[in-house]
Amino acid sequence: MDSRVGATDDTARADESGILAASGTQAAETSRSAAGDEIASSPIYLRNTRQMMSSEATQILLINQHEMFTEIMQRVFDAETDMAVIGHTNGCGAVKAVEHSAPDVVVLDYDIDNGRGAVIAREIRDHNPATKVVMLLGAPNVAMIREVISAGCLGVVSKDRGANDLLGAVRTVARGHSVAAVPQLDAMLEPIVEDTDEPLLTARQSDVLQLMGQGLSTDALAAALFVSRNTIRSHVHQILVKLEAKSKLEAVVNARRSGLIS
């Protein structure tokens, strides 16, 4: 029911009835080039954002190669008043679709294009750093989780979790926070005990890390420890450096794996 990028002018006029065809004649001409050939073979479906129930709704782009699963996710999100699916595409059209639609959050399947989900996530983050990425994992393991977190994903959700977990993850990352909804995550991250005489983190950094593991935001951390936001940012920066992490979520995963937090 949606329209393809590179559609004819007649198809583009379907936008007036609620369907947005991105690019139009210009994309059709571009499709004759080498780059355009890739775009033309990769359908990008963008919906009319005027259909959104609220201008404050989180705009979501779905990147998945299974049409049935995509339709189910779209219905789940559309049932929420604070969310709106603005389009969907497959792996090859991912970066172009994000450039066209500028979504708040991308929900991306790790298994897309034979397991290129993490690569696509990194490309999205490199080209559109304001867009948050939630990665869906079919059979998560430690290496996979570390890979997607390193790629810049703020959210990680196992496919065997319920719709509420996915909704919660999208809401969390839309606010700029990280979340991992993966069964038995702690069991997978078995502690690695290292023989060292000097603790890696200071006592205060350990306090901050423990609260980070509970998913607290910067404001909540500052309130809990009775310090300023700048002080928390400084502690978090030092924690990321010491744990060789690029995000709070990656730091928490590394800390659990090394036994620094429970």
Structure in words:
The protein is α/β, with parallel strands linked by helices and 262 residues long. The protein folds into three domains: 1-41, no CATH class; 45-186, Rossmann fold, CATH 3.40.50.2300; 191-258, Arc Repressor Mutant, subunit A, CATH 1.10.10.10. It contains 14 helices and eight strands. The protein has an eight-stranded mixed sheet with strand order 1-2-4-3-5-6-7-8, with helices on both faces. Helix 5 (94-101) packs parallel to helix 7 (117-127), helix 11 packs across helix 13 and helix 12 crosses helix 13. The longest helix has 14 residues, at 229-242. The radius of gyration is 20 Å and the shape is globular.
Key traits:
single chain; 262 residues; Arc Repressor Mutant, subunit A; 8-stranded mixed sheet; globular; disordered N terminus
Sequence of secondary-structure elements: HEHHEEHEHEHHEHEHEHHHHH
Q: Please tell me the total number of domains.
A: 3
What is the beta-strand fraction? Answer: 5-15%
- Helix/strand/pairing category: alpha/beta
Percent in helix? 40-55%
Helix segment count?
14
Strand order of the largest sheet: 1-2-4-3-5-6-7-8
CATH topology of the largest domain: Rossmann fold
The overall average pLDDT, rounded, is 76
- Count of DSSP strands: 8
Level-2 CATH architecture of the largest domain = 3-Layer(aba) Sandwich
CATH evolutionary superfamily of the largest domain: Response regulator
